[in-house]
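The step that takes the researchers longest sounds almost clerical: writing a folded protein down as plain text. Below is the pair of lines this work produces for a single protein:

——
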Amino acid sequence: MDLTSFITSFTTSFVIFIVLVLLFTWLSRKPGNSVVYYPNPISRGLDPFENRKRSMNPVGWIREAFVASEADVIAASGVDAAVYLVFLSTVLGILVFSGVLLLPALLPVAGTDDALKLANQNSKTAGNYSELEKLAMGNVQEKSTRLWAFMLGVYWVSIVTYYILWRSYKHVSNLRATAKSSPEPKPEDFAILVRDVPSRPSDQSLKDRVDSYFRRLHPDTFYRSMVVTNLKKVNKIYNNIEGYKKKLAHAEAVFAESKTTGNPEGARPTMRTGLLGLVGSKVDTINHCNEKIKELILKLEAEQKITLQDKQERAALVFFNNRAAAASAAQTILAQMVDTWMVSEAPEPRAVIWPNLSMRLYMRQIRQAIVYTLVFLTVVFYMIPIAFISAFTTLDNLEKLAPFLKKVVEQPEIKTVLEAYLPQIVLIVFLALLPAFLMFLSKSEGIPSESHAVRAAAGKYFYFIVFNVFLGVTISGTLWSSLKRIINHPGDLITLLATSLPGNATFFLTFVALKFFVGYGLELSRLVPLIIFHLKKKFLCKTEEEIKEAWAPGDLGFATRVPSDMLIVTIVLCYSVIAPLIIPFGAIYFGLGWLVAKNQVLRVYVPSYESNGRMWPHMHTRILAALIIYQITMVGFMIIKKFVYAPFLFLLIPISFVYAAITKNRFYKSFAATPLEVAARELKEVPNMEAIYAAYIPPCLKTEKLEDVELFEDAQSHATSRTTSF
């Protein structure tokens, strides 16, 4: 990409961002749009404009984001949101402190050399180099003493990363400890998850077996147990009832509205009973829904009894009357045979993946092996379409693949637009399809909680982007045009890498700029959710519940957001010395990202679960992995440049692994399990154990007849001592 295309892309992206910010400022001040731009405070029963004026200042949201404290973020969206902001500020700090030294030192060193000019004079080398590429390490000649500056730059980036990561890990550890020792009781702090319960004797229910086992081990602190059941059928009936209730409320609202249109008696809504309401006999909607609800409630009650008594699985949630006892029990090996009575901390009630709790150990291991194999195949063979996409980065390659497009792409205006936007947009769309697939695979492993599944999916995505995006895009542009040469002369691959790595920095510069300007602009303006909300409200929504569902924003979306950010971390770190000009773009991405994300967690997103910062060790490890990849890349690049002191860079790789081991030993254990000194801190009030127990009863089992905790226990244990019947 030449300088003109880069400036066109950057300027256009910036203009789009400014337009989107102005739209956000204007639209967010309109009262009818409050539920789109301020759903978080509204969902908490707060007035989003309390003590604030409806200002038209386009930078007012930036001031408010800076003023808001970390405690405000935690109060609005929880510790997980605060930890995500720590992640963004950590990477921003790494890039700012690295760039302070690297930019003034390395840009003049690279820009005043002439390796690219000499390379162009070689008849065996084809290609034109832009002004941007002359500011990269590729413009430094082989064996040059100038390479000392770049080698010292690698050390500087590594030292800065070590220092800032250590401070951030310590800060997040304190945040987690504060949350876990909160004086407010939380259900998950009083429960543990028990899996692989041994089969029960014929004269004892599984519930009674679990109770007797834990009552013997923890006679003073054991409270109750809840055996996991197969919820597939009862949950289906429950969802059908909820669906008919929504249809009934909608139909009643339509009927009431019809009475105000000149017909006092109104027009009763009708529906068809067949597929999607398009076929079948026509019936009165209100009467039909009432009949189906009554019918299904009877089925639900019968199925609940069968589920609780006859569909018990070999897993349970065990509750203790104080959280220190629960924390201690979750860290204990209970049985001599370690593949039975396996315990861990209970997931938060909102985050439980019920079908996975009862999965046996051997099945989890088999599934994990299958999933890892599928992930490996996905990572490796996704290179093929990525290589095809990367061909678009060079229009010459596109002309070779599709000669009939030659006349079109040679038009100056079309060529500039294609070079500026097409490769980046296609790559972003292509990558957006993958996270959902990886989330499905992660849940298939038997992971017990949503938060754990998100971490697992994000880890898989990280390995994918490193192999396919960083390596694939960087290398395949060269491989595509030089495949014949590589087949005939495999040794030339090293030479091609030496010239292609700096050259591809311009692609990633545009990629990063497009993501932070257009991506964050769309995130802030919320144009798509705004349009969808108003369309639904006008044409589909008739009840308050339907309107609430239409504006519900969802959570921050760590499963897709964190991997996308990790891609930028990997790219910017790996190119920070090779092409230092990428550092300001990375800093803008994470700086602007911090501002936009803070605005969104305070005003927009509503957390669907809380893991108290459990994602941080994953973030920390992946940043270190990106650093190690960067160090290995620089070792290879220095060797290609024939720099005799390149072996000094080898020292950084074991240092990084030692640093990773030290940080893991120092901090990780307090994330994997709750320290007893944290769990033992005093509560503000005596916990309501019945409420804690009831928080884990699945919605499909939580009906009026099961509101009493003791009734629920009776149904699971087949108890006959109590006189109250199910």
About this structure: The beta strands are 191-195, 222-229, 270-272, 282-284, 312-320, 342-345. The first helix runs from residue 3 to 27. Residues 477-484, 719-726 have pLDDT under 50 and may be disordered. The chain has 31 helices and six strands.
